[in-house]
Amino acid sequence: MRVDLGYVPLTDAAPVIAAAELGFAREEGIDLVLSPEPSWATLRDRLALGHLDAAHMLAPLALATRLGLSGPQADLVAPMALNLNGNAITVSLPLWEAMAPEADDLDAVASAFARLAMARAGEGRPLTIATVHPFSCHSYQLRIFAERGGLDLGRAVRIVVVPPPQTVDALRRGEIDGFCVGAPWNSIAVAAGLGRIAALGCEIVPDCPEKVLAVHGSQAEALSPLVEALHRAGTWCADPANVGELAGLLSEKGGLGPDTDLIRRTLTGHLVVDPTGLCRTAPDYLRLGSSVHRPRPEHRAWLARQMAASGQIADATEVCEEAEAFYRPSLLKA
């Protein structure tokens, strides 16, 4: 059975790339054809309109598509999660220098960001910060980060949408002052001498529900072999013994660039956070594997609360109920 699966080039696409390239899908009777997509909006539309059978997708965006809140409405379901965490907030080097946080801990950095953002807004030249899509954990983490520093993000900062693969170039061109994006694009900005990783997503929201496998509800049962293949592939990706091979695979086949050592660091959480070589270790920076594949009930409620807090919906209760139908853990046999 042929399955066309869309993904956006990110480290957390590892399970779908491994499933296609290492034979996990083939062993389950699936001819898995991967389609790298330039943006989340493009991926959403192609999946919703039936040009794709499945997708590596932002959990909030998949749910929003089901609810008819973003793009063409489609009866999307998520039989499994592909990862937890993986995001970070990166700011330009001039912005980091101007922030001058008193310490590197999250509260100090958030407070420094808030002070500078409010000052710039008062001068009529607000900061421009990019997120990857309004319906994304990146947007929610940006808001939570700002609130931690006492900042109303929507009132003081200009928020724009930039697809993940374009964030580094946007920072280089000075179109944005920073961004929240998934690995490896934060690390690529640091390696290019353009940015400083200011905060890790796993610190802002531990075990944040990031990407899911999204499929049409009418095809969910037929695609159970795909779920099994991705479960096996994700388990392989989480094995420390496979990190080197996986980094090479993501570099060669995943569209993540030639620096396999950089990709390896995003897989292990040993991150270089600024161009001087300053390192941070965060074992939960990106979580892959069988322990994260089964969707958690608390994630349904969290997504609904974040949509409400962001003004995207009026009532979290109604969406939380719909999210029960969105997550289909019964299709994950493991």
UniProtKB/TrEMBL annotation:
Q: Does the keyword Cell inner membrane apply?
A: yes
**One GO cellular component, as annotated:** endomembrane system
Task: Tell me the keywords, alphabetical order.
Answer: Cell inner membrane, Cell membrane, Membrane, Transport
Q: Which CDD domains match?
A: PBP2_NrtA_CpmA_like (cd13553)
Q: Which stretches are annotated as coiled coil?
A: none
InterPro entries reported in the protein's UniProt record? NrtA/CpmA_ABC-bd_dom
Q: Which PANTHER family match?
A: ALIPHATIC SULFONATES-BINDING PROTEIN-RELATED, BLL4572 PROTEIN
- UniProt protein name: Nitrate transporter
Tell me the organism.
Methylobacterium gnaphalii
